[in-house]
Amino acid sequence: xxxxxxxxxxxxxxxxxxxxxxxxxxxxxxxxxxxxxxxxxxxxxxxxxxxxxxxxxxxxxxxxxxxxxxxxxxxxxxxxxxxxxxxxxxxxxxxxxxxxxxxxxxxxxxxxxxxxxxxxxxxxxxxxxxxxxxxxxxxxxxxxxxxxxxxxxxxxxxxxxxxxxxxxxxxxxxxxxxxxxxxxxxxxxxxxxxxxxxxxxxxxxxxxxxxxxxxxxxxxxxxxxxxxxxxxxxxxxxxxxxxxxxxxxxxxxxxxxxxxxxxxxxxxxxxxxxxxxxxxxxxxxxxxxxxxxxxxxxxxxxxxxxxxxxxxxxxxxxxxxxxxxxxxxxxxxxxxxxxxxxxxxxxxxxxxxxxxxxxxxxxxxxxxxxxxxxxxxxxxxxxxxxxxxxxxxxxxxxxxxxxxxxxxxxxxxxxxxxxxxxxxxx
Length: 426
Ligand SMILES: [Fe+2]
Prior knowledge:
By secondary structure, the protein is α/β, with parallel strands linked by helices. Helices cover 42% and strands 16% of the residues. The protein folds into three domains: 11-44, no CATH class; 75-179, no CATH class; 184-425, Purple Acid Phosphatase, chain A, domain 2, CATH 3.60.21.10.
């Protein structure tokens, strides 16, 4: 590679060069492959740094979780005025559920069916109860402080703990109803500035973040497929995070996907959870079910009234240990921006790069709309677009809140959705 003076290739560019790809993340041509020696020299110092970062993040996360569990146990059990064996019993239960919810992702992958489901249920429900409990406690502490400022006396500890448990239980039940209920149908009309009038009225039905895995299985998918087929779409787009688990664990559960119907095909792009679940094996399996997978490439969709491009990219964390696997330049290589193009990308963040290339519409998921309020404010730290329609220049983005859920089988103020997109011209 002829490296300009002072220019240091990114890890992505070096990886692509090794694989024989000729373009960088920004589409810049890599004019000559770097020598292997140079790559090793550049990558080698990253190992210990990355390892230290992982250890630091893990230690901080585990310490924070332990501290938060202690806080929850102190306020709801130790300070509750309860006596006898209930206090150590409830404290031990909180500790076991806390440790179990940390180990759950590993158990989910290690255990065969049906054990990975049986073991996951209590820990995933606890994860939701824990999050709701923390938020209820913070709000209660704030209200308690305000009551003190206006001269109101403290509530008796037993009454306070009982009221908090009741409120947390009610919110958890509400969340379970939202998580395990059917997804709602969102109908969205997009008026796209450069979309040709001949293709106006095109309908794409999007499902995203279904997360077939430890909780959701075949029955949920059968119902979902029936709902999608009833919409008689031109295209069906599945925008990633379809599964949490390996093919051998879940292939019976995903069989109903073979019944999905659309006039011009059913398409899929990978999400980060598909990558964690073994994306190569899943892509091969989905193709046996008649689902077309767009991995950094595009298809021309021919309709009677004209044609458009449907492009798709892998999630950018697909190969996170080695760098990015999203390759937008490759997916759009040779595309004339005057031709209409819809991009499928799991993570809305891809829109930062895609809108500069003039795509017409991007369909994404990933955020779950935060799933359990107020988690959306934490998601916002990582992804600028949480749900709904957004625009930059002439390009449009739609972010689905997701059709299933990840982790706790709960949703609060972020309902699951099946999205029917109708594309219109200005
Ligand atoms: Fe997801």
